[in-house]
Amino acid sequence: MDRGLNSKKKYKGLVVFDVDGVIFRNIFLISVARSTGLRNYIRILFLGWRYYTNGINFKALLDEGLKLIRDFDAQKALHIAEGIRRSSHIEQTMRILHERGYFISLISSGIPNYILSQLAREIGADHFSGLATGIKNGKIQVDQLKLRPKDEIVGELLLRLNLTWSDVASVVDDPNNLTLMKKSGFGVGFNPSRIIRTHADIVVDGYDMLEIIPHIVPENQLPEKISLRKQLLKRELYRKTIHFLGVPLPFLAYVHKPAVAAVLSAVILIYVFSEVTRTIGFHLPFISHITKRSERITETRGFIIGPVSLTAGILITLFAFSPEIYIPAILIVCISDSVSSLVGRKFGKLHLPFYDRTLEGSGAFYITSLAILLFFLPPRQALLTALVPTVMELVTPHYLDNLLIPIGTALFMKYVVL
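Above: the chain sequence. Below: its structure as tokens.
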């Protein structure tokens, strides 16, 4: 259904948004199930898990969801939808797309049209299409409901807009959108399931809607504050803030090493479980949120190994070496690696031929490593030892440097310096 179609206007393109999991951070039918009791809630979650792991198809999942809203109070359903948390900066994203000449459509296979109508008005979408449910005596009616394929809906819309599939950018998350995304000129996987993650042109994890803009609108048409470079720097800053959280660990281990080891081992187990569920489309509270906010674009296709390698590197260093060695080695990977990455991302101009490193970043790594080592070694030895982690950071792939830097630094200190 159209809200803002101007037949005389020439649109630059069509941007199609799924709603559940994209505009809404949660799923509407799951939120309805939660309101009806724990049993229904657990059941729909289990069915969702089977759907994302290819245990059932979308029609079977939707049929169960429709049973929940049959004769459900329409006003209550609207209040539930209004209470679902949304991705951030939605209205700003819609405004930028409109200013650049894009037509915006919301298409959902699991949300009634009367709810989508209100949502489209609130966020400034031009078109919406959802479940053609009826309302009788204030209750939702779902009998004889026919579900139209999303690509069919978009195809009809393209004819009216005088656009082609190459002009379409789809922003989607779950397998039901695969056909739509494959036909689109550009597909954005937004916190996507495994199959969408595999086939998308770009993957955006996290709930900041502005992060899709630089992938749809040309960079030279965007202000600096929402440019891709700015967003990558923001993610790197968040990522390295997490690195800094490791600074107290060697000092705490000096007081009680078994307790620190137990915590780090638990972190690895929880994180691995979180990553396995995230890559198929399920997201654990807190852990998945942190991962999605800090991952790099190069890490969006699968399991992110960085936190595991960092934690493993710290654990091995703690148990294999004495405090005068493991303390500086761990501080270097937590501090120097973070400073190097941020300096390189912000100020790096002279790129080196190793894993996208910069001279400015490597210089910052050496200086901070030297500053740390001067607390533990004489100046001449510190000057030499600081070269070891600097060179390792320069020539080691991103997913291994967290593991190898503390271990390599500690080995050099034990067998060469001390």
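Strands lie at 13-17, 102-112, 127-131, 134-136, 139-141, 168-172, 186-190, 202-204, 351-352, 357-358.
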